[in-house]
Amino acid sequence: MEFAAPALAVADWRRRVFALYRSVRAESDPAAGHALWQAGRDDLLMHHPASPVPEDERAAYGGARVGDYRPELRFDAVIDTDVKPDRWEFVSATDGVIPFSLIGVLHLPAVGDLDVWWLESYGGGIFVPLKDALAGRSTYGGGRYLIDSVKGADLGGDLRAGRLVVDLNFAYNPSCAYSPEWTCPLAPATNKVDVELPVGELSG
């Protein structure tokens, strides 16, 4: 797979991610959707020229290590919008300051609270990162992403009713987990939970 310019490869990557999550949302069985997601994401990571896995490591890369699917960690959650306005700015080495504003919080039973952020940069998007008690051990130390709608990572939910589908089994590693050439917004303190979540993409 070759592209005339690196930007076109990234555009194709984004297109494929949007299509993958669209297929996942269309799957009636969440576990089957998860298997579809895992296979699709592995294919991208192992073979796509815009993969964050360094090119000289892809031939030996066998795909992301993913925890077993646990249905109790899937939520159709209400976004609690009764929150004090807040702003979070991530300083990127390549894109300057990336601003986010708080739009709500998710109260997940037996897990904890996660802030819901809105990307204020061009394009906008809902962003929900996650850092659990295994961070730095069996999950990426900087935290993982659950929802990043500007890049297609969106499991659905009735937004008119203020709801999001939040499935912790779909937590995935940001690009910077694969290579220092990438800089990524990492989970702020308000998106850290005290429970261990050995699901989704793991370290290693």
What does this structure look like?
With 204 residues, this protein is an alpha+beta fold. The protein has one domain (3-191). The chain is 19% helix and 24% strand. The chain contains 2 helices and 7 strands; from the N terminus they run ααβββββββ. Strands 1, 2, 3, 4, 5, 6 and 7 form a 7-stranded antiparallel beta sheet that branches. β4 (112-119) and β5 form a beta hairpin. The longest helix has 21 residues, at 6-26. The two termini are 26 Å apart. The mean pLDDT is 94.
Structure in a nutshell:
This protein has 204 residues and is of the alpha+beta class. The chain has helices at 6-26, 30-47; strands spanning 74-80, 87-92, 96-108, 112-119, 126-130, 144-148, 163-167.
**End-to-end gap:** 26 Å
Overall shape: it is globular
- Which class best fits the helix and strand makeup? alpha+beta
The number of distinct helices, counting runs of at least 4 residues, comes to: 2
Helix content: 10-25%
String of helices and strands: HHEEEEEEE
Approximately what portion of the residues adopt beta-strand conformation? 15-25%
Low-confidence segments, given as residue ranges, are none
Number of domains: 1
Largest sheet: 7 strands, antiparallel
Arithmetic mean pLDDT: 94
Number of strands: 7
Radius of gyration of CA atoms, rounded to a whole number = 16 Å
InterPro entries: DUF1684
Organism: Kribbella rubisoli
Pfam families: DUF1684
Protein name: DUF1684 domain-containing protein
